[in-house]
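Hi all, long-time lurker, first post. I run a small reading group and we've been trying to get comfortable going from sequence to structure in the token notation. Rather than ask abstract questions, I figured I'd post a concrete chain and ask someone more experienced to write out its structure so we can walk through it together at our next meeting. Sequence below, copied exactly:
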Amino acid sequence: MTQRPLLRSMSLDDAKALPRWRQPVGLLVVMALAMPIAFFTWSALLNNFVIEVAQFDGSDIGWLHTVREIPGFFAIGVIFLILFIREQVLGLVSLTLLGVATAVTAQFPSLGGILMVTLLSSIGFHYYETVNQSLQLQWLDKKKAPQFLGWLMAAGSGATLVAYALIILTWRAYDLSFSVVYWAAGGFTALVALFCLVAYPQFEAPNPQRKQMVLRRRYWLYYALQFMAGARRQIFTVFAGFMMVERFGFDVHEITALFMVTLVLNMICAPLLGKLVSVFGERAALTFEYIGLTGVFLLYAGIYFFDWGVTLALVLYVVDHLFFSLALAIKTYFQKIADPGDIAPTAAVAFTINHIAAVFLPALLGYLWLTSPGAVFGLASCMAMTSLGLALLIPRHPAPGNETRFSALAPAPAE
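-- Answer (accepted) --
Happy to help. Here is the structure in token form:
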């Protein structure tokens, strides 16, 4: 019996003969559309859900996000799993887990229950993201990668925008519950992931991936950028939205409307920012991002220290999201300096490095938040300045053997 065409393996070159929606780029787009429906719906409702239903305080939300980031710290486990399962399959199974765990979130309205479901959804999210980043860098041409990554970000923003619009239009009009929304969003993502498992061939990248942990000294700057990005991101992810609910009393539909504004701007700006990375290079893009983020976090701190109002908080939230779009430059910097066979294992290692601070930082800063929320954002500005110093070490034209601006003086070792 011949193998079913839908399930056969296929090289990237042969895949060009398929209809465009079934090509590798088509799969990347479908996954980019599906993942945010579950994840960002969960995020949009989270602060109101845990405050209104589970009576969380700043310490509780810190612990929740610490638990959420533990699977990211163990993303290195992807290297072990791809010994037995294809990356593409692992990514879609992980996406299914994210959808299912999101769907049942509201069924466990206690601290212990929320932490348990969050851990499961986080395993799905972080393993999906690890594999997805690897597949993007393997499947996309280096010259086109920055702009195409921008388009993928825009696609994800568009899908999330639709979900948020539905929340705003129906939340009060139909008196929806948290349970209904979580079931709808998580169920949709899970069904799309299962569809992709059977609708797409198994695409074979031209460069076989090493299936053991890879740590190379010449990638040190990439590792450092990932570490700082993870530490800095936690402060915004955990506390910026929490501030809007705790300090300014935002309701679900108001938080969702704020997210929608950022999504519309990301849909417009992400492809443009990807193009700018292609034109001006990773160093210029990241330098601009980190200078901007330093100012944003200092102004966040001022909201607490000087009692500045909600208008500034809203503007900063939107600007913050736009700056984070430039983080794609870290991916393309690595793509340019990497040995092609290192992409999958290094994606797993990088995700673990990115989450080292994430495991302990939210819980510790949750306690600091109870006494001085402004100090939390002041710490974030210091992290952004540290990232700026690292970004300035990126050469104008990164390549193997030219990983940092020091490479010309002292070439990096092969390992």
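A couple of things your group might point at:
The chain has one domain: 5-391.
The first strand starts at residue 9 and ends at 11.
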